[in-house]
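Aim 2, interim progress: modelling of the pyrazine-2-carboxylic acid-bound target.
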Amino acid sequence: MEALIVVDIQNDFIPGGALAVPGGDEVIPLVNRLQTRFELIVATRDWHPHDHGSFAANHPGKRVGDSIELGGLQQTLWPVHCVQNTPGADFAPGLNGDRWARVVVKGTDPGIDSYSGFYDNGHRMATGLGDYLKQKGVSTVFVAGLATDYCIKFTALDARALGFATFVVRDCCRGVDLNPGDVEGAVDEMRAAGVGIVDSTELGRP
Ligand code: VGL
Ligand code: ZN
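Predicted structure of the complex, ligand included:
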């Protein structure tokens, strides 16, 4: 059984949003088409409280892009984004969620960030996505969405570590590339961990 994981295609991650990923909106029609070849689709949603520790604004004197310690881990500071129950946290317009079996929220604990759809960044709490997919008999996952060098990478690495055959559908993803080369580095890191990198055109129908 295969599943598609649609990662964080939310208003704040597309152009015009607080943490816009360059070309982030381009994945919407591609992911809509990709979804038609999957029977089981789950989506992840970045879903932060307003006082989340990953927001630069919550650390006086710190700026976006600075690094701090949060929950005992190094944390890059971001603009305020994907705050629960705000338009920035809504799924992007035009993204078809009609066939989603489940939406997994992450980043809800103000004291730790969560790039992966499976665990927080310290692997302390599971979101339940791993157990859900195993209970559904899933052995292979495909990952698409935003952003290649953060939530896609960590979701794919955790999926692989949990024993799923894991593929990132590269043309259906876009990255932040905070430092040029980050996306390329993320792809190399995923490959080295046994994650397959594919294009939607290789996947056959439709
Ligand atoms: C993400 C940075 C902060 C992502 C989420 O979805 O890739 N990146 N929060
Ligand atoms: Zn976030």
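The chain is about 20% helix and 25% strand. The chain has one domain: 2-46+85-203.
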